[in-house]
Every structure is written in C-alpha cells, then in structure tokens.
Amino acid sequence: MSAEQKKPGLSSGTALLSVNDLKVHFPQKQGLVEAVLHPEKRRYLKAVDGVTFKLQAGETLGVAGESGCGKTTLAKTLVRLYRPTEGEILFLGERIAHLKGKELTRFRKKAQMVFQDPYESLNPRFTVRAILEEPLVIHGFGNARERQERIVSTLGMAGLLPPEAFLPRYPHEMSGGQRQRVAIARVLVLEPSFLVADEPVSMLDVSIRAGVLNLLGTLIQRLGLAGIYISHDLSLIRYMCDRTAVMYLGRIVEMGSTEGVIRHPLHPYTQALVAAVPVPEIGRPSRVNLEDEPPNPLDIPRGCRFHPRCPRAKGICQEVPPPSVVVDADRQVECHLYS
Amino acid sequence: MLARLQELWTIFRRDRLGVVGLLIFTLFLLVALFAPYLAPYDPMESLYRPDGSFARQDPPSWRHPFGTTRMGRDVLSQVIIGSRVALLVGLTSAFITTFIGTNIGLIAGYYGGWIDDLLMRLTDIVYGIPFLPFAIILVAILGPGLTNTIIAIVLISWRTTARVIRSQVLTLKQRTFIEAARLTGASNLRIIYRHLVPNVLPLSLVYTALNLGWAIMTEASISFLGYGDPRLVSWGSILFSAYVAQAVYDAWWWVGPPGLAITLLVMSGFFISRAVEEIANPRLRER
Q1: Measured by CB atoms within 10 angstroms of the end CB, which terminus of chain A is less buried, N or C?
Q2: Do A135 and B185 touch (CB under 8 A)?
Q3: Which among B212, B206, B226 has a CA at the least distance from the CA of B279?
Q4: Closest B-chain CA to A140
Q5: pLDDT, tens only, A52-86
Q6: Full-prediction pTM beyond 0.80?
Q7: What pLDDT is stored for residue A12 in this prediction?
Q8: Who among B177, B184, B198 is closest to A138 (CB)?
Q9: Is the per-residue pLDDT at A3 higher than 50?
Q10: How far apart (Å, rounded) are the C-alpha atoms in residues A111 and A103?
Q11: Mean pLDDT, chain A, integer
C-alpha cells in the first residue's frame, strides 16, 4: 500500500511535512516570590522534547504511545494550535512556527485536525449546516449556492445520508458516530492536504469504530491526504498507517514501517507496547510487562528517559541519552542496545 | 429556529413561578403601553368631589379606586402612568447593562492576561462602590432625569454580569470546539461573537431579568428619596410625596398601591430570571 501511495515526484527530498528537533515546553506556574528570586528555577513541562521526522504527501504516519507521552501536544503543534518552543516545522518548504494573520489562515486551509471527542469538538449551538459552512465562509469559498453544494457533497462523502436531513440538526440530536462524521466533514470541506487525527475513535462505541475508521482510511486514500494518526492502540495504527512512530516522554524512540515496527520491535518500550496488544494466540512467549507509571514529564530521568522502567537497562543508560541509530533503510531507534 | 423557541418555551413553562412572573410582567407592560387610555384622570390634576369640595386625601371609593392624594390627585392614575417610568428605566438599563457586562466578560475571559487583569480590577473597584449612594450622588450632580438615572444604574450594575459571563467564558474557551474554530481559521472576534456568544446568551438573559428587577428598585429608591425628575410621575415619586406630606401612616391607599406595584414588578423579574436559569443551566432541570 505504501509503495504506490508515495508520489514519485516528491520522494526526492521535498517532504510535505518536515519536523526538525521540535520542542514544546509549557512553563509551570511559579509563585510570585519565587519568580522574582529564582527565575531560573522555573519548571517546564516538556511535552514534546526533540521530535524529528518527515512525512511525504499521501503518506500516513501512526504515532503510538501511552497517555501523557506528548502525542496530543505534538498533534496540536503540527497544525499550529500550539506554538513550538524550539525547532522547526516545514510545511511544503515553508516554516510555519511563526505564521500570522493571512499566512496562518492559508496554512489552516491545508492542515487540519480531527479531535478525539466529538461530544466536545462541535459547538452545541451550531447546526450541522453552520458547522460546515463556517470554514467555507472564513476561507472565502464561493457564493451561498456553491457553499450549499459543497456542504451537501461533503456530508455525503462522510457517510451522512441523506445529507439534507442532517443540515438542520444540532450536535445533541446525533449519535457519537454521526458527530465524529460531522467533525470529519468539517475538516474535509476545506480539502486539506494534511490531516491529523487524534484518537478519532477512542470515544466512540466499539461497534461503530470500524465504520468511522474505514471512512477516514478511504478518504485519506481517495483524496491523497497525508495523515498523522495518533493512537495508543497499535492494532488501529497497523490498520491505518504506512509508517509508525513510537513516542515516549516527548521523544520518538522508534520509527519505521508499520509492519516492521510491529513484527520486529527493537526498542524495549516498543516491545512492551506490542506485547500489550491482546492477540488470541496460544503458546505465545510471555509478555513483557512494564512496571509503574511513566515518569512525570516535569522531571525527566537523566540518561535514557526509559531506563527506570527498562528491563534491559545497562549502566550507560543511566548516564547518557541514547543517540538516534539508523538500523536499516527504514528504521531508526533511540536505544543504547543498538549503538 | 421556531422548533428551538418552542423547545425553550416548553422548558420555561415547567417553572410555574416563571410563568406567573411572565404574566405579571406582560400585564405591567400592557398597562404601561396603554397608560394614557387606561388612566381615568390626569395624574397631576387636582380633583373635586361631586359636591364641589376639594378631594383632599379621600379614601378609596368607586370614583377613585385607590383614593386621592393630599393634593386631590387620583392615585390609580398615578400608579398607571408611573408604570411607564418603571418599565422604561428597568428595560433600558437592563439591556444596556447586559450589553456592557456581557462584552466585558467576553473580552476579559477570552483574551485573559493583562486585559483580563485590567477589566477585572476595574470590576473589583466598581464592586467597592455602594450602589444607592453612588446613584443618588450622580443624579444629584448630573441633575434629575430618566437618562441620568439610567446612567447611574448602568455604571454600577454591569459588574455582576461581567463577572459571571467571564467565568462562563473561562470554562467555555477550554472546550475543544473553540480550538476547532481556531483551527478552521476563525478570528478572535468571530470566535467571541459567533461561537461564545450563543453559549453565554442564556446566562446573560438570566442577568437581564435580574438587572430589570434591580433597576426598577433603584429607580424607585432614587425617586423616593426625592432625586427623581419632578415633572414625571413614578412609583417612587408617589411614595416620596406621601412621605413628604407625612401621610404614610394615615393614607394607606396612597402608599400601598405604588409599593405593591414595585414589589410585583421586581418580583416578576426575579421569577422570570429563575425560569431562564433553567434554560441556561440544564443541570437544574433535573430537580
């Protein structure tokens, strides 16, 4: 699937999205006296702490990791809901970190996001028509009739049939699956080229997840979108994505083709994640279990940030942060075991 | 839209006191609108009894259902005409107050930072000003008149609305749909006025109804203390003239009707606000 999707013209370096040593730190509240006396002691929550990757047009990247590892912050930074603290995001060769005004609006038209909770992401006082019409109005799309046609066709694409019946509805008059489809339609109505989906089905009933996932998958393929799919669930990522990145405490610890990463996980953390996916299989090797919760991102361990929980930690892991090792053509891992 | 109004009415109707409040309010509104046709006499005219003698502080009778004043004026006509001042001041200041308070709350809550600090410290200062003395002094300085009364009321009473709306905005702006709106490229103004306003409007209306009550009460107090427009008949000024004539203990018909009218109208505002609150806050509906 990935081979035919990568557009040959773009593979020669100009990625759609190129993220370079991205950091997003949130300053923590500090008392007034503290702030005056010890401004240097101010603590930062390092939600994203040095992430580097490239995304080609039409490619889908899965980002996996525990809750609190910075997945959502990464997602929101990529669509510029948050400002990066450091590092660069290049979108079609353009730096987006400091875009403002009209340029930011132009970027917004191309880079969109589907949020996790469809019960929260739609304005309760807006009808479906208003929800879908607003982005078109903001970006100056056509006249009222053209907008209406676009809205109806997009609703149809999102599987809300018949579209006309949904136009006057309010969010509270729809099911979770329908709401998420409206949220997807709101994104598609702008015809973006880049889409971030942040756990788009985790708030939905298990029975309707497949429908929404299939919709996202087909749309991404049909429209040639580049997508980042964020989830803690590796089986969903396997179903959706060409490549997979595993995040731990704000860094990508392993990245490679989805099949490769899931079949032959290299990083001990990835191995634990893969082992945690329930598979109905008898005689499977014993699971790798992780003790404890992940450390507090306010207080990141020295050396390798995974070492306190790592079953294979060595002496060096406590002292030196592991470099990024390119294992083969399509796999890199941040672990001392491979350097 | 019509369906939504119908739905709101269904919720409103469930609160019986709210319906009573709305009925009382509508009644007063109709009286005020048609006051010149309803009032049997000119409220300022000194009247005479059929035998030609001066109708001085007459108790209620068929000719004068609410009796007459020391100057022989018909109390019923005065109360009817006085409803115009009460409603005019009440409605105007309630709407201006809501407008100012809601906007200040929206801007402070949405932008946060120093804008929030500035506006909220201003609100704190206004909270420190005693309402009635301030209104009286302002009217005394600017001169009596409805406009000045309204200005005095508005200058103080926006504070509550501003604070309440700000706190509502603080919770609303954390919700994902605001983030989603920003993501579609909506400007700050669009987010405030298209996304936030419809969500805070029910709460604003609760405070409009409350402010209506407060404004009517304040206007009556100002007039009762003698700082009202002497050319206008208002409920407060009726009470003022009764007080000045030292008739409060003798002529119950002179003080009772305007006092009752103030109470009823203020109460109707509070009742209506209670019912609107159930629309604004769905959690209250389960009671």
Answers
A1: N
A2: yes
A3: B206
A4: B185
A5: 998 888 888 999 988 888 888 999 999 999 989 98
A6: yes
A7: 43
A8: B184
A9: no
A10: 12
A11: 84
Q: How far apart are CA A305 and CA A323, in angstroms?
A: 12
A78, A113, A114, A121, best to mutate vs chain B, most B CBs in 10 Å? A121
Mean pLDDT of chain B: 85
Residue A284 clears pLDDT 70, i.e. is over it: no
Backbone region of residue A185 per phi and psi (left: phi > 0; alpha: psi in -120 to 50; beta: other values): alpha
Mutate to test the interface with A, among B2, B5, B8, B177 (most CBs of A within 10 A): B177
B77-286: CATH topology is: MetI-like fold (1.10.3720)
Q: What is the ipTM of this complex?
A: 0.83
Considering only alpha carbons, which residue of chain B is nearest residue A196?
Answer: B183
Q: pLDDT at position A244, please?
A: 92
Please check whether residue B202 touches A, CB under 8 A.
no
Name every chain A residue with its beta carbon within 8 A of the beta carbon of B177.
120-124
Rounded CA gap, A237 and A257, in Å?
Answer: 11
Nearest to B198 by CA among A188, A171, A181, A203: A171
What one-character-per-residue DSSP string does A54-84 give?
A: EE-TT-EEEEE--TTSSHHHHHHHHTTSS--
Q: Tell me the count of A-B CB pairs closer than 8 A.
A: 53
Work out the average pLDDT over A109-113. 90
Instruction: Say if residue A162 is preceded by a cis peptide, omega within 30 of 0.
Output: yes
| Interface check B34 vs A, CB under 8 A | no
Residues comprising chain B, all counted = 287
Which of A76, A105, A122 lies nearest to residue B177, judging by beta carbons?
A122
* CATH placement of domain A2-6+15-338: 3.40.50.300
Position A336, amino acid? H
Contact A120 B194 (CB under 8 A): no
- Cβ-defined contact of A123 to B181 (cutoff 8 Å): yes
Cα distance between residue A321 and residue B35, in whole Å: 85
Express the helix, strand and coil content of chain B in percent, nearest 5 each. 75, 0, 25
At which residue do the structure tokens 């404890």 appear?
Answer: A292
Cα distance between residue A272 and residue A294, in whole Å = 13
**pLDDT the model gives residue B101:** 94
Residues A324, A335 contacting (CB under 8 angstroms): no
- Using a CB-CB cut-off of 8 Å, the residues of chain B touching A167 are none
The domain limits of chain B are 77-286
